[in-house]
Structures are given as C-alpha cells and as structure tokens.
Amino acid sequence: MSAQPPRPPSYTIPSTKLDALDRRITELLRLNSRMSYTDISKEVGISRVGVQARVNALIENGTLERFTVLVNPEKIGMNVSAFFHVEVEPHRLSEVARRLSDEPAVTALHHMTGPSKLHMHAVFATMQEMEAFLQERLYNLPGIAGVESQLLIKKYKY
Asked: How far apart are CA 111 and CA 137, in angstroms?
C-alpha cells in the first residue's frame, strides 16, 4: 500500500455580503450611475420602490460610497497622464497625503505597502505643466524622500 501525497488545502472564495440582486444593481450602477430606478427595476425584475430601498440600504451600510461622473481628461485638454510612486518620511505621511489630495492635478492617491509609499495619479495639459508641478509643488513638500514617475501611453480599461 503506497502512501498518497498530501492534498493541497482547498480554497474557496468567501461568500459576499451582497445577494445576487444587490450585486446586479451595483453592477448596473457601476456601468451607469445615472441609470434610473425604473430602468434598473426592469433589468432586475423588482419594483422601482424595491430598487430604491435596496440602493438606499447600500448607501447607508457604506457599500455604495458615492455616485460620480468619469471625465475623459483628453477631451478637456489634459493630455499628459502620469503615475507616481512617492516615498515619504513615515512621520510626514498623513500630512503629505492631505496636501497632495488638495492638488487639482491629482486624480487618485493611495497608500501602498512598502516604505511609506504613496501611489498617485495626476493629469496635466502639457509636459511643461507636469514639470512645474514636480518642481514647484511635489519636490518642495516637506517629507518627500523620493519620486518615481511613469507616463501613461494607452488605457485598456478604466
């Protein structure tokens, strides 16, 4: 009788807190946050009032944080899109994050794993505008230890 090799542990995806109906409603709103409750009700098969009650519950429990519009930066003259890894002195992280969050060019800002790294996305009209932002705004912030930048060439999914 030969010994069988140990079996790898089985992993399952944890069940979500949303039921199938709430998942479908959130997916429809993710695709079009302006979709009316009436149109959603036709898609999911419950009343408009039922959809409204579910959306309100998703807002109240924090699942839906906000409804927003996605603006194409190139259509408004913002032709330079860049990502930055900003290394910050640990004791200055919150202050730097707050100040960068207030910058109009900054569209997203995240604290990442690693030695006090902020991952930032920003858009600019020109390369000269990006350079001015770096020289006048970013590099002068107290606590900045280093900056790496990458320019976006093409978006495949947003």
From this structure: 19
Q: Taking the model in full, what pTM does it have?
A: 0.69
pLDDT by residue (tens digit) across 8-28? 565 554 556 788 899 899 989
Domain ranges, ordered by start, for the chain: 20-60, 73-151
CATH hierarchy code of domain 20-60:
1.10.10.10
Kindly list the distances between the CA atom of residue 147 and the CA atoms of 7, 74, 89, 119, in Å, as whole numbers in the listed order.
46, 25, 12, 10
- How far CA 42 is from CA of 27, 50, 96, 102, in Å, comes to 14, 11, 47, 41
Domain 73-151: CATH class, spelled out: alpha beta
Give the position of tokens 């100040």. Answer: 99
